[in-house]
Amino acid sequence: MAIFLTAQSKVIVQGMTGSEGMKHTTRMLASGTQIVGGVNPRKAGTEVAFDVDGAERIVPVYGTVAEAIEATGADVSVVFVPPAFTKDAVIEAVDAGMPLVVIITEGVPVDDTAQFFTYAQSKGTRLIGPNCPGLITPGQSNVGITPASITGPGRIGLVSKSGTLTYQMLFELRDLGFTTAVGIGGDPIVGTTHIDCLEAFENDPDTEAIVMIGEIGGDAEERAAAYIKEHVTKPVVGYVAGFEAPEGKTMGHAGAIVSGSAGTAQAKKEALEAAGVRVGKTPSETARLMREILTGA
Questions:
Q1: Is the separation of the CB atoms in 251 and 216 below 8 Å?
Q2: Which of 111, 146, 285, 287 pairs as cysteine with 172 (C-beta 3.0–4.6 A)?
Q3: Per-residue pLDDT for 214 more than 90?
């Protein structure tokens, strides 16, 4: 089992023929993802040959998302297009009835995100991102830019704002493994929240415990803590990045800004601990806490 993404997921790549799309499509194919097509109106009807571990893989290019779905039965789209074109790409996918759209692009204007997120909600499409590494169900499928080689399948669910910390946690707990790891992104508005993932992991019979990684700014982690207290029965460990961040300064992600005590790492840590979440002071300590829960070691 997994959440949102399985070996049966059929994936198209919007922006596949660009440099980032080509590079990461090759990596996704190499990790076992079913890439069934790309979308580029200017290259419709062509094919792209990918060198995947010495073997040639041919992927067709369609003019629209709707054409790609009709031809392939795709149920996931991953977006590798520049920020200025991201809104149009997402709306096209939503209009075509795509159930899941994963938006890797960084630097999408927040107003654009607000518009396409509201539209996607109204049409029943789940968005992940923008400004995220995507999601991976190890051994089954990998949509985005997460290195598949750093981890393996197992019993842990991971939801994280930070791409880099997603990779570190996947690596540190690679022997125990993961059902699914979701990088939700760190922008002020994201399509899928900590709470969305916590609910899905709680309902997934193969996920035995959950790692939640947050960071300073906003109140997403505090809201997640309240949700955990009321609805999550599985053990959760957490980490909040940004204990050393100076007040009032934007740190990296667009969503990571602190005003007064609201949004601080300490406030988030306290809220999570009050909900029964064990919170590590470092990513490595967080991994050790999860190891203790699952192995007793």
A1: yes
A2: 287
A3: yes
256: closest CA among 221, 216, 223? 216
pLDDT at 191: 98
**Which residue range forms the structural domain that includes residue 180?**
151-295
Out of 94, 128, 162, a domain closes at 128
Q: Of 24, 194, 231, 253, which one is the catalytic site residue? A: 253
246 or 296: whose pLDDT is higher? 296
Domain of 104, CATH number, reads: 3.40.50.720
pLDDT at 254 over 50: no
- Domain co-membership, 168 together with 207: yes
**Residue 183 structure tokens:** 């990088």
240, part of any domain? yes
Residues 6+ apart with CB under 8 A from 13: 21, 24, 25, 28, 35, 37, 38, 39, 77, 78, 80
Catalytic residue list contains 194:
no
